[in-house]
Amino acid sequence: MPTNDTGPTNDPGSLIRELQEALGASNVLHEPEDLVVYEYDATIERSLPDVVVFPATAEDVAAAVRLAVKYDLPVVPRGSGTGLSGGAVPIKGGILIVMTRMNRILEIDADNRVAVVQPGVINLHLQNALAEYGLLYAPDPSSQRVCTIGGNIANNSGGPHTLAHGSTVNHILGLEVVLPDGRIVRLGGRVPDAPGVDLRGLFVGSEGTLGIVTEATLRLVRQAPATRTLLAIFDSVAAASEAVSTVIRRGVIPVAMEMLDQEIIRIVEPRIHAGYPLDAGAVLLIEVEGVPDGVAADSAVVEQACRDTGAREVRSADEAEERERLWEGRKAAIGAIGGAAPAFYLLDGVVPRTKLPEVMTQVLELCREYGFACGNVFHAGDGNLHPNIMFDPTIPGATERVLELGGAIMRACVDAGGSVTGEHGIGLEKRSYMEWVFSEADLDAQRSVREAFGPADRFNPCKVLPGGHGCASGHASEVMQHLGAGSYV
Amino acid sequence: MTGLKFVGTDIPSAEDLANCIHCGFCLPSCPTYLATGQELESPRGRLHLINGVREGRIEPTSRTLEHLDLCLQCRACETACPSAVPYGRIMEDARASIMANEPDEQPREWRLRAFALRNVLARPRVLRLALGGARLYQRSGLQSLVRRWVAPVLPASLRRIEASAPSLTAAPFRKTGTLASPAGAGTRVAMLLGCLHGEMYPNMHTATVTALEHAGCEVVAPPAQVCCGALHAHAGDAGTARALARRNIHAFEAAGVDAVIVNAAGCGAAMKEYGRLLRHDANWAARAEAFSTKVKDVLEFVAEQDFAHDLGPVDRTVTLQDACHLAHAQRIRKAPREILGAIPGVTLNEMANSDRCCGSAGLYSVVQPEMSGRVLEPKMAAIAATSATTVCTSNPGCTLQIENGTRRFQVDADVRHVIEVLAESIEAGRRP
């Protein structure tokens, strides 16, 4: 850290002036009416930044970070603001650095299967650009039409195809980042296995607590020559869960295995018309890829495994349009719940795949016990649960009980040998659950890493790790009083 | 501090706003978000501002209102929204509840706009007088004098308006009564003539009559009809919009028709929503609801009739601009493609993002020329990339904007309503 001879200054007027000089006046927002739309992400967490900046280059980012040091303010990075854990909410104010202007694909090196992008590139825009080379970037979150690569890196995002390809950390070769003291450094490289300490791996999933990514070198994979999407229809969630383990036990790893339960099907189908039967207890959306003969053989195994575990019907789609329609229902599911319930609490937990039938039964029982409707739409192949608890926040006490139920479900995941996030990150929302997964010594080790990069209250303070100076518990219940109808946690 | 707040009977409802879960799926569909990259100019941001004003948490300062004003009301976000947030009506309600404040509290520009709309579009005689002047200006040779000698010294904004004025050289379409009565007609339909439409693009009306007649319909135009009120509703003048809706319902009910045919997507979308507009009016709510079910876009209606017989060849390579208020507000995308696909000789080259707004958006291109231009630019690039020589539309506003675009960005293409291309084909089929 460079020392600051004059000490921190507090004049907001001169901060804004300096930011405007460094980044250009039109790239700095500071009026109250402008700041208010940067107080949220896709959770119910709300907190206003002091100022919002839109950098165009790594140097712009570094300049903003240096000013944050000078004025002793927190720095919070933001992409499209689609996060599901409050990660981009500036809970202690400060400078919100919005990366949407840095949205260029700098290079696609098809022969080496590498792409170099700025962090504000939208995931789907990258996929579209890669399609003409027959390539893809494997992480495909359901929000891919709007979320940014930078946000994906911060949260180590997954997606349906994580099952076969791994999550974001498996697809980042190198990063350019701005550190909390304003230095611009490169981590990793263009080839796998860069020498030295793997700081690249450390940054992926650090949720903006260690620095800001300003450029990323991505590993690409080939689009498979043949793809088949199967829709297996079951009478119960338990039977569908059993099918997931059975498929893998029989030696086939599909590229995706997604489950939608009855509650979700009845919300999604009337709106999206994906073709899910309304009377099904659960459906599995399974995708198999490879050379055509391999796809045929693998799908036969998948189909038999589903039938042996009680599927009443297995449909298959080979044509792109038909497959997209089946997927459309899955991708729009979370959003569609917003139209069906006054509010819902979307959870993100993981369990070992083989524990799926028993944990899913527990989840449904807990929801019944607490008296809330619950829809499940999730990455079953990864054991990555997404229960959506639907409730009416205007009923006194409902929100508290929902949060309590959420805690009980997370506890069940941890007790089954799992964890409290599959892909949405910890952010503000799940800080307090970290203690269930890690010992105090484990958490201290993580704190030491964070402090090696900079003071804990500079970069995205009060996120990921429990405690922290001047941080509330960070749990959603802290902001419950601001809970408006329709928001989800 | 201002004394402004949301008042009146149109305050955006909590239920409508509650559907938004801030997922952000609307962002990449919003032309102003794409142009700026800023949450402020996005549907999610605007809904957050509206909700904040509604709750009294956010002051409706001129800065706040500017973000609402910069919305094109194209409703592409409604198509993208997985939660079915009724964005269009929330925005209309928000604007109406600002305009429901006392006149001296209303934002000056909003008040002037509403005044102009109320006293020009809603009054055919004033409108015709104004357009008569413009027509004289163009025909007399004065326009070429102005463009040569005066325009260079005009401020940029006036110069842009002068340059973007429609060509008014064709005789306006002002016929009413029975427009066609083919032998053995099984269906009787009425046509909306609109306020500006028949004055600016009379050939669209002529083509509409030709197509409806070809499809075996008797076509009438009730003389008592008026402007549909869409622009008034968009601008927050709900009172005038309601008054116009009542007059139209009355006029079209008297015609005793099976369907009310509209060849301007923006007008059709508004008239399909008369039921909602008059929901608080006990005497009119049910009549308005019944009327709205009869409203059909001309392309939607024709595609359902037997229209594909006896068509002659039309040699055109076309691309199709999906009018926002057809694709997003009325959810009609197939009908224009079915019609174009049935015309011999027509090749359809689809443009990228054909359902993204062109920046016309009613009065928007006049009151927000800068953003309108930024939205138009990628549209013209998408059109140029198709190498089409005809751009097909389904709304006169889009036609005007894209005609301007072809001049500004030197794109060699003419602009036609889909129904005009169909009428050409019908005419060609009649030739021996």
Task: Describe the model.
Chain A has helices at residues 12-23, 32-35, 58-70, 123-131, 149-155, 162-165, 199-203, 237-249, 262-272, 292-308, 320-331, 333-337, 356-370, 398-415, 434-437, 440-453; strands spanning 28-29, 51-53, 75-78, 95-98, 105-109, 114-117, 135-136, 172-178, 184-188, 212-219, 221-222, 226-234, 256-261, 282-290, 313-317, 343-346, 349-350, 373-378, 384-385, 387-391. Chain A has 489 residues and is an alpha+beta fold. In chain A, the strands form 5 sheets. Chain A has a 7-stranded antiparallel sheet, sandwiched between helices. Chain A is globular, with a radius of gyration of 23 Å. Chain B has a 5-stranded mixed sheet with strand order 1-3-2-4-5. Chain B has a 4-stranded parallel sheet with strand order 7-6-8-9, with helices on both faces. In chain B, α18 crosses α20. Helices cover 52% and strands 9% of the residues of chain B. Chain B is globular and about 70 Å long. Chain B folds into 3 domains: 14-106, Alpha-helical ferredoxin (Fumarate Reductase Iron-sulfur Protein, Chain B, domain 2, Orthogonal Bundle), CATH 1.10.1060; 115-164, no CATH class; 172-432, no CATH class. Chain B has 432 residues and is an alpha/beta fold. Classes of the chains: A alpha+beta (489), B alpha/beta (432). The A-B interface holds A 29, 31-34, 36-38, 40-43, 54, 80-82, 98, 100-101, 103, 120, 122, 124, 143, 145-147, 271-272, 332-339, 342-344, 484-488 and B 14, 17-25, 27-28, 37-40, 42, 44-45, 48-49, 51-52, 55, 58-59, 61, 63-64, 67, 81-85.
